[in-house]
Amino acid sequence: MATISIEHASKSFGSTKVLKDISLDVKDGEFLVLLGASGCGKSTLLNIIAGLEPMADGTIRLDGEVVNDVHPKNRDIAMVFQSYALYPNMTVERNIAFGLEMRKISKAERKATVREVASTLQIEHLLSRKPSQLSGGQRQRVAMGRALVRRPKIFLFDEPLSNLDAKLRGEMRTEIKKLHQTLKATMVYVTHDQIEAMTLADRIAIMKDGEIQQIGTPQEIYSKPANMYVAGFVGAPPMNFVEVDLVKREEQLGAILPAVLKGEPVDHFLPLPNSKHLEARENTKVILGLRPEIITDSTSTHSSAPEIECDVEFLEPTGADTLCIIRLNGHPAKARVSPLFACPPGESMRFTLDTHRACLFDPTTEQAIT
Amino acid sequence: MSHPQQRKQQMSVLDRLQRYLPQLVVAPPFLLLVFFVYGFIAWTGIISLTNSRMLPTFDVQGIQQYVRLLAMDRWNVAFDNLLIFGSLYILFSITIGCVLAVLLDQRIRAEGALRTIYLYPMAISFIVTGTAWKWILNPSLGIESYMQKLGWESFQFDWIVNRDMAIYVVVIAAVWQASGFVMALFLSALRTVDEDIIRAAHLDGASTTRIYFGIILPSLRPVFLSAFVILAHLSIKSFDLVVALTNGGPGYSSTLPANFMYEMAFRRNQIGLGAASAMMMLATVAAIIVPYLYSELRAKRHG
């Protein structure tokens, strides 16, 4: 059992508030990812869980017990750092064993545990080396080994993969995921990489300016973003935002979407399904959020979804899909189409808009309209 | 017709000048260095093999000056003093400097001011340090008389006039001067240590003392080495501090080899003997510096 519960945590460095009244619960065995741009307070929050930084205000409970004043070493927590933070003067073996050594575990037992961890991480052949003789990926594994060897209740990861190259990062991501499934330990993982967050997390907490913007499963975060920041942060390429007018035509509420066809502006009427809650906003402006895959080629779908025809300015082939850059209400937007049906740049093609999956945001508060 | 040709020639002169400019600029200092440092080392080496007295002669006689030197009590005292002074000076300067650096590294208030205070002695010349400490340690002026006036009648601190202890007085003054510098060296190195390492060690359950002695200080090995080399050569060439502080006394109990050399070469008309002692000092410095340079250069080639 290992749960983390943070209530009303706040913290400031000088006059800048890095954490503003954060409350967060992590369930036993859960993999929670704290996602956000640099400076959003996610690493500070992690350090507070570890006990490496004091909180100005608030309580933190591990397994229901308040640990505000408990020393990091007594919290039964292990942490993997972005810089790996290996002890430069010790061999890999001592690096991994150091935590056990400090906990007065006998030499023989230490040796056996280190061997076991080293074999799961496939670093047995490195045990007698010094950190300076290792590559980035190997250091990363040693840092993981140092965390694993103590069998802590809670694992904390502070951007552990951001110093690795893309290929290694992918491999280590899979291994961390595998590790989580075998250990079933509670893990909190800090990253600025939304792909890491989406692939690893049971739940994601998106932070900005010391506040949690939204917390939910990767799918919830992706398809029902709470506000425009979350919508724009998660997903690559990011969601298209178009400012539109809400109007009623033939008893159906919909959005007026200005597009461009053969160089001429054309207004399309997009009927919005399930629009009961939007009645009050008739004849006002809202922000329509369309993920690129919502705007797709008409040829590959056979739905009754509304279609628009418009000019394609550029193409960005990504292999599996091709991104068409079109112009919606004067701003470039990306549509994700099959490479088979993408028209050459400069010509026009028909797109289907899956309005069921579109998001709507309030233009002033930037919050999702629900 | 001749004009362009002339111009071409001029250009080539300029080109050549440009090509050889670095050599031209570096050559005079290089020659001066070779002559005044290495030339005079060689000259001293030759003189040490003659029986020069007031004026140098050049009839090489062999190693008799060295034999004389090693038989002299004055030289042996000076050399023993160097061993005592050098080892204590290096040991205490590094220990105190290191402890000060660790304490200052705790993100304390007014760190900048404190750092300057500790570093300041280094800016004072050895003559001033020596004179000041001579007054402080003088039994009838300094600490001893002060403590006695306070009422501690039996207080004694007369090392500076004590034959057996005078060299330790030199150690005290020299350590006072150098430990701030060592502290600055260590402090700058401590600041480069990755803070995450300290955090990781905290999580691993290590105490702060353990973190410093088990992880951080061992990783500062290169700094220890540079501090050692700097202090070692400072201690071997120490001269003015002794002159100002004890003037080698009482008797010759606190002389160092540099003072011996000066005494012989410039006051007692024993240039040959002075040169021999200078060569002995050179050998001592070389014994420390050469392995250091060797290991440094080797590391660079491998790295």
From TrEMBL, chain A:
GO molecular-function terms, A-Z: ABC-type transporter activity; ATP binding; ATP hydrolysis activity
EC top class named in words: hydrolase
Domain ABC transporter: 4-234
Main location: membrane
Topology versus the membrane: Peripheral membrane protein
Family (UniProt): Belongs to the ABC transporter superfamily.
GO cellular component, one term: ATP-binding cassette (ABC) transporter complex, substrate-binding subunit-containing
Entry keywords, A to Z: ATP-binding, Hydrolase, Nucleotide-binding, Transport
One Pfam assignment: ABC_tran
Cross-referenced InterPro entries: AAA+_ATPase, ABC_transporter-like_ATP-bd, ABC_transporter-like_CS, ABC_transpr_MalK-like, ABC_transpr_MalK/UgpC-like, Mo/tungstate-bd_C_term_dom, NA-bd_OB-fold, OB_MalK-like
The protein's name in its UniProt record: sn-glycerol-3-phosphate import ATP-binding protein UgpC
Any Gene Ontology biological process: carbohydrate transport
Enzyme Commission identifier(s): 3.6.3.20
Location relative to the cell: Cell inner membrane
TrEMBL record, chain B:
PROSITE patterns linked to this entry: ABC_TM1
TM helices/strands, residue ranges: 21-46, 82-104, 116-136, 165-190, 211-236, 271-294
Keyword Transmembrane helix: yes
Stretches of the chain forming a coiled coil according to its record: none
Swiss-Prot/TrEMBL keywords: Cell membrane, Membrane, Transmembrane, Transmembrane helix, Transport
GO cellular component, one term: plasma membrane
A matching Pfam family: BPD_transp_1
GO biological process: transmembrane transport
UniProt keyword Magnesium, yes or no: no
Record localization: Cell membrane
Main location: membrane
Domain ABC transmembrane type-1: 79-294
CDD domains in UniProt: TM_PBP2 (cd06261)
Highest taxon, organism lineage: Bacteria
Membrane topology, from the record: Multi-pass membrane protein
InterPro entries to which the protein is assigned, alphabetical: ABC_transporter_permease, MetI-like, MetI-like_sf
Family statement drawn from the similarity comment of this UniProt entry: Belongs to the binding-protein-dependent transport system permease family.
Full protein name: sn-glycerol-3-phosphate transport system permease protein UgpA
Organism name: Pseudovibrio axinellae
Gene name as annotated: ugpA_1
